[in-house]
Design goal:
Elements: H1 4-29, H2 40-52, E1 57-60, E2 73-80, E3 84-91, E4 98-105, E5 109-112, E6 117-118, E7 125-130, E8 136-142, E9 149-154, E10 169-174, E11 181-186, E12 199-204, E13 208-213, H3 270-300
Parallel strand pairs: 1-2
Antiparallel strand pairs: 2-3, 3-4, 4-5, 5-6, 7-8, 8-11, 9-10, 9-12, 12-13
Helix pairs in contact: 1-3
């Protein structure tokens, strides 16, 4: 009996199985929405909803990982569409993972219909446009508490993709009676980005943040005064619109508790993807071993 007739299909099955599991793992990992791309009103709704349940909420499991500790709760946005968002959350560094579905409430707001809790009417938000000098930015803020001192930090120490403790203060401004302000920030033009870094992260205390390009050469003239943006704009896109929604995706179960810095956070679904991948390869290996045994017995006969 020709053993090749058995061996070739087995190898093809193994290759297709590995390819399928790898594709599933990649699709799962790409489902998560990075925190800087989440609308500020959705982030505020998530915070309000988790705190209303009596939990100590610390922020996004990856974006705010430097501020998280056991006992804190964190969340991860798995998908955002024009009408809804899927969010997983749970205690930091634990396997207790829960899922919530948020829907639109009005033009900018979000709410969890299961609890009735959503984003407040006023959510602090920032917009930015290049200033006249290289690496200067004109920052407009809205919906801050009236008369509040707002301190800005250049929070780029973690690559611009997550918040990290910093003492690099840029300037402190005071919000007006309407909660709005405008300020020009000068970032260091000679600063070098980290490998692969394209954005800087500007933080307005703990109230709001915005990503800007790491470098720009300066505008030809000073930009015109910013027009008051509508309530609750997106933090990382030109006002007034929220970021373009991502295609809804069925979320895998991510680990909401991103591990400590010594144990980096896996991508959403990474652990499950590895388990399925190894199980699939083991099963296909057993099938291959059985097929070789059949071939051996047939040849002896």
């Amino acid at each position: 009996m020709d053993a090749k007739r058995f061996i070739l299909p087995i190898f093809l099955a193994v290759a297709l199985g590995v390819s399928g599991f790898s594709a599933l793992r990649a699709q799962t990992a790409s489902a998560q929405v990075a925190a800087p791309k989440v609308p500020v009103t959705l982030a505020a709704a998530i915070r309000a909803d988790i705190k209303a349940q009596g939990f100590d909420y610390g922020g996004d499991c990856k974006f705010d990982v430097m501020y998280l500790a056991p006992g804190k709760w964190c969340s991860m946005v798995q998908s955002v569409s024009a009408d809804g968002a899927v969010v997983t959350y749970g205690p930091f560094a634990s396997g207790d993972i829960r899922t919530a579905n948020f829907v639109r409430k009005g033009e900018y707001g979000w709410v969890n219909p299961a609890t009735g809790v959503g984003s407040p009417e006023r959510v602090p938000a920032l917009s930015a446009q290049p200033g006249a000098k290289a690496d200067s930015w004109v920052i407009t803020g809205i919906n801050f508490p009236a008369g509040q001192d707002v301190t800005f930090f250049d929070g780029s120490g973690c690559g611009g993709e997550q918040r990290c403790p910093t003492d690099h203060r840029l300037v402190t401004v005071k919000a007006g009676a309407d909660g709005a302000f405008e300020v020009t920030l000068q970032l260091e033009p000679s600063a070098k980005p980290l490998p692969g870094q394209v954005n800087r992260l500007i933080q307005a205390g703990d109230a709001a943040f915005i990503q800007v390009a790491f470098h720009h050469s300066g505008s030809a003239a000073a930009p015109p005064p910013a027009q008051p943006p509508p309530a609750n704009p997106a933090p990382t896109q030109p006002l007034p619109a929220d970021p373009t929604p991502t295609t809804p995706a069925t979320p895998a179960t991510p680990a909401p508790g991103a591990p400590t810095p010594s144990n980096p956070a896996p991508e959403a679904g990474e652990d499950d993807g590895d388990g399925f991948l190894y199980a699939g390869i083991a099963a296909l290996g057993l099938a291959a071993a059985g097929a070789f045994g059949i071939v051996t017995v047939a040849r002896r006969k």
